[in-house]
Design a protein that fits this description.
Length: 592
């Protein structure tokens, strides 16, 4: 094999790699670890940013239980199914992948390193990738993790009943799009080749220079073939490869994780495993979470708020005015774009002039205020994040101070034949900030004679609903996040390539299927020169906004509070900007 890319230390630059997920907050990854390889700061002190918020809450000790206070149950314990930032963060505690990311919040450096894999290599065309597994890696029952288990885990994830989460492996592995999973087609894919117990090769259907980042996604988790008999089994009985295993789970109430005694920290540069156990308390009211985190009574000193329940805007002033509260509040990273999606299969949203009129009508400053104000959100004009290489900033739908141009919007509707107004139904997730954002858009539309009814959907089932074309309504508030791969490929293609439209797990909510845009994606996707590829995606970004399938609204930087006894808390880009659950532990394990 031609070794065009070989990394015996298994490190790649963040500039080229990563993956995305639907945002789990208002929506596709620790510090000092075992052996000091997890990439976080080495500091026993709290590190603060310029606003007095915590960049890092100090080095934790070994032992004790970390409690996570959340308002939303997890979509599924099966890593092939869940597809929001919070559940993907949870998966990191239970499952391991071939590769994964480290991050240092002080230096802002993130690296892709070997997780289960000790190294990897590709051919010159980046169409074949071979990974070599580490020794000493095991499942929770002590059985070794082999290349066959990696193959089985990925082919299991391709089952139609499971293929709801991240779809990058299915997109790029040769033949995977037509494959129905190991239970329906037990012969498996001949494009996933087990060379021996520790070596596995993937044959792709096109060049993918960043494939090592794609195997870091949750559907890449391995499972033992001789212990899994049905597609639904893992959701009910997870098999851990990470530092923790499921001790008990009462849906909508509590999830308890305990130590996986067969996890070897010497093989894991990602997960320090400070705590002995994790307790996730579910279905709590957001106001209750804020009050508990600020009051710090009893065992709440050992708790954090979940990524689905960041600090409410109403309590921001109280935190800002109290340095002790601010010092245990971590500000998230702007890795997500919240947007309004138009279902272009519905009339009259199939009319470009109507979509553009609605785009002009939105008061984005109002959406910023609904998101908690400028400290918690900034206006978005297009779908590429500011840090994406090659991105060109533009705004095709300008209005004074981003307040919307109501007169222009109304005139465009009249010209399109809708002078008497329109009525739509908007899907929105049952989270306070999302509903506030939806109400802001609803109010802006009412000012041009467009009536919008909000369809509020349970937060845990939101994506299952809106990602099913037969169930989604006219409009939807949602978000798309990067977890490190700052490129148009993961940020744009899943949302806007016509071939990515599917009957379930559909991320192309607009159902945009434009021949020119599809062709541009296909051409950019096989480019091996990253500068050329980045420029191509910048052009595609503009092509998309000209078609107005979505209205970019804001990019949020939410705040998560932690208890005064919580160490190791910091925002991780590869966890969609939230606190990395992996790094958490107690500063004093003996505290209540």
């Amino acid at each position: 094999m031609n070794k065009a890319t070989r990394l015996t230390t298994s490190v790649l630059s963040v500039a080229a790699l990563g993956f995305v997920a639907a945002c789990g907050n208002g929506g596709e990854s620790g510090p000092q670890g075992n052996g000091g390889a997890s990439g976080g700061p080495d500091s026993s002190e709290v590190i603060l940013d310029d606003n007095g918020f915590a960049l890092y809450t100090g080095d934790p000790q070994q032992g004790g239980t970390v409690t996570v206070l959340g308002g939303v149950d997890f979509r599924s314990l099966d890593p092939a199914v869940g597809n929001d930032g919070n559940v993907n963060n949870l998966y990191q505690l239970i499952y391991r992948y071939l590769t994964q990311y480290t991050y240092n919040p002080e230096t802002e450096e993130m690296e892709l390193v070997g997780d289960l894999a000790e190294d990897w290599e590709s051919n010159d065309e980046a169409t074949e990738w071979t990974f070599t597994l580490k020794e000493g890696i095991h499942f929770e029952d002590g059985s070794p993790i082999t290349a066959e288990d990696v193959k089985f885990g990925i082919e299991r994830a391709f089952d139609p009943s499971l293929a709801i989460g991240s779809d990058y492996l299915k997109t790029y592995i040769d033949g995977a799009r037509e494959y129905n999973g190991i239970f329906e087609e037990p012969e498996g894919l001949d494009s996933i080749i087990v060379e021996d117990e520790r070596t596995i090769t993937f044959r792709l259907d096109q060049p993918v220079a960043s494939f090592p980042a794609i195997v870091a996604t949750p559907p890449g988790a391995p499972f033992p073939a001789d212990q899994v008999d049905s597609p639904a089994q893992i959701a009910d009985a997870p098999i851990a490869s990470g530092p923790y295993k499921v001790a008990s789970y009462r849906e909508g109430d509590v999830l308890e994780l305990e130590r996986n005694e067969h996890w070897d920290p010497e093989t894991d540069p990602i997960r320090p495993g400070h705590a002995d156990a994790y307790e996730f308390l579910l279905s709590l009211d957001s106001s209750t979470i804020d009050q508990r985190m600020m009051a710090q009574q009893g065992s709440d000193v050992n708790a954090i708020s979940s990524s689905t329940n960041p600090l409410q805007a109403a309590n921001l002033a109280q935190v800002q005015q109290n340095p002790e509260l601010a010092e245990r509040t971590v500000r998230g990273l702007p890795t997500c774009t919240t947007y309004l999606g138009f279902n272009m299969t519905k009339e009259p949203l199939d009319n470009l002039e109507v979509r553009q009129a609605l785009t002009y009508a939105v008061d984005k400053q109002s959406v910023v205020n609904a998101s908690g104000g400028p400290l918690l959100a900034e206006v978005a004009h297009e779908m590429l994040l500011p840090a994406v290489p090659g991105r060109e900033e533009f705004n095709l739908y300008e209005s004074e101070e981003d307040r919307g141009d109501k007169e222009r919007a109304q005139q465009m509707l009249e010209d399109a034949g809708y002078a008497d107004g329109l009525s739509f139904t908007m899907d929105v997730r049952n989270l306070p900030v999302w509903q506030a954002q939806a109400e802001s858009v609803q109010q802006a539309f009412s000012e041009i004679g467009v009536d919008v009814t909000l369809n509020v959907i349970d937060a845990a089932n939101y994506y299952e609903t809106i990602q099913n074309p037969s169930q989604q309504n006219d409009l939807a508030i949602t978000g798309w996040c990067t977890s490190g791969w700052y490129s148009g490929q993961p940020l744009l293609e899943p949302l806007f390539h016509g071939e990515r439209i599917s009957d379930s797990g559909n991320n192309n909510l607009a159902q945009l299927d434009d021949e020119d845009i599809n062709a541009a994606f296909d051409e950019a996707g096989v480019m091996t020169d990253l500068d050329e590829q980045n420029a191509a995606y910048s052009d595609i970004n503009r092509m998309i906004m000209e078609q107005a399938p979505v209205v970019p609204l804001v990019r949020q930087t939410n705040l998560q509070m932690v208890g005064e006894n919580i160490g190791g808390a910091y925002a991780h880009p590869s966890r969609t900007g939230y606190i990395d659950y992996n790094g958490l532990g107690l500063l004093e394990p003996g505290e209540q």
